[in-house]
């Protein structure tokens, strides 16, 4: 059976329903034929129900349903409902689910190039810069080449919601120098694991739900996940009290919306368009909600949970860049990764030049109206 002939449960159900409608139409009045159940898209995420990201996935589902006039619904399932958090790519490829809401770094174990689509080197562009590269700078084509041609997967992927730079993470004590990091057992994922290893830490790659138990058992000494809201929701503040914001290890990530290619191409063009452009609609909505909730939860962590908020030291940030300098030549021994990194560098050099030259000093303005709150 070829990839294009692969059985798809949704295609079978859709075509069976249509065939039944035709047969029924010969004996029933026309109005009865119009009463059709909505198409249900089975989407699993890589998040549990308590994570704000599960809410972000439901926001996407809401927009799809409303844009389709109720003709299409997305059944949003949490991690573990069908497969584990790191297995959603396989599940979409195999037709177990129609779609997934995740991040490319979670299939880094299959191909390291996955990390370049969100958690690669930071050349000076933000997550918004790199999401723009995906849509306007050739990133989508490179992603398709990796997933569909190099890896031979039956998937279509779109990126959405440019995440704010991930904090360096949670530590039991203060870490202000590179020497303070030596030997720490630290949780991260993707290329960030290689990066932190070069900085002297011992790295464990764990799903979000396993982080706090691992910290409690002493399996890890420190960790990062992503943002104040997700970190708060799984209890990071209960196992560590020093929270370091700003880092170059994962500063340009976006969500990945994965679809079964067989399933997607079998849909009518309007449904395909709704699923595609719904990602862009959710991206805007997710950004607004993240700005609201992340900032409020950071205040709660600081004011109510007794967490000390730090900015990562310049010494550690400089060391991260030097570690990237060591790692990039190793990555570029792979021709596809070199092609992708070359594309990203060219994009950032041009686009971030405009962004940086054009942007006023927002920190200066913030300090003018809210003096002394942020150490500039």
TrEMBL record:
Key word Signal present: yes
InterPro entries: DctP_fam (IPR018389), SBP_TakP-like (IPR026289), TAT_signal (IPR006311), TRAP_DctP_sf (IPR038404)
Cell compartment(s), UniProt: Periplasm
Keyword rRNA processing: no
Keyword terms: Periplasm, Signal
Superkingdom of this protein's organism: Bacteria
Signal peptide region: 1-29
Designated name of the protein: TRAP transporter substrate-binding protein
Organism per entry: Thioclava arctica
Lineage, highest ranks first: Bacteria, Pseudomonadati, Pseudomonadota, Alphaproteobacteria, Rhodobacterales
């Amino acid at each position: 059976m070829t990839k294009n002939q692969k059985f798809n449960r949704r295609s079978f159900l859709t075509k069976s329903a249509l065939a039944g409608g035709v047969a029924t139409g010969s004996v029933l009045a026309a109005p009865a034929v119009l009463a059709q159940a909505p198409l249900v898209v089975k989407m699993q995420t890589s998040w549990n129900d308590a994570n704000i990201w599960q809410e972000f996935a439901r926001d996407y589902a809401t927009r799809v349903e409303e844009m389709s006039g109720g003709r299409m619904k997305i059944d949003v399932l949490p991690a573990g409902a069908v497969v584990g958090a790191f297995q959603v790519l396989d599940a979409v490829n195999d037709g177990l689910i129609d779609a997934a809401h995740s991040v490319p770094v979670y299939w880094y174990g299959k191909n390291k190039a996955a990390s370049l689509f969100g958690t690669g080197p930071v050349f000076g562009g933000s997550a918004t810069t790199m999401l723009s590269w995906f849509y306007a700078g050739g990133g989508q084509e490179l992603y398709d080449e990796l997933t569909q041609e190099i890896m031979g997967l039956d998937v279509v992927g779109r990126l959405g919601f440019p995440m704010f730079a991930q904090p360096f993470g949670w530590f039991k004590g203060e870490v202000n120098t590179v020497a303070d990091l030596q030997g720490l057992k630290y949780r991260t994922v993707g290329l960030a694991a290689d990066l932190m290893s070069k900085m002297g830490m011992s790295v464990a790659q764990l799903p979000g739900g396993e982080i706090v138990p691992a910290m409690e058992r002493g399996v890890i000494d420190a960790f990062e996940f992503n943002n104040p809201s997700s970190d708060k929701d799984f209890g990071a503040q209960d196992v560590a009290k020093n929270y370091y914001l700003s880092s170059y290890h994962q500063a340009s990530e976006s969500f990945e919306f994965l679809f079964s290619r067989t399933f997607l191409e079998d849909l009518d063009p309007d449904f395909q368009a709704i699923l595609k452009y719904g990602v862009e609609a959710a991206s805007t909505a997710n950004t607004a909600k993240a700005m609201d909730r992340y900032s409020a939860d950071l205040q709660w962590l600081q004011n109510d949970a007794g967490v000390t908020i730090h900015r990562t030291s310049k010494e550690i940030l400089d060391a991260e860049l030097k570690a990237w300098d060591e790692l990039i030549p190793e990555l570029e021994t792979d021709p596809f990764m070199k092609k992708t990194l070359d594309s990203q560098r060219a994009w950032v050099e041009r686009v971030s030049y405009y962004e940086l030259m054009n942007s006023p000093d927002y920190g200066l303005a913030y300090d003018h109206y809210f003096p002394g709150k942020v150490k500039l």
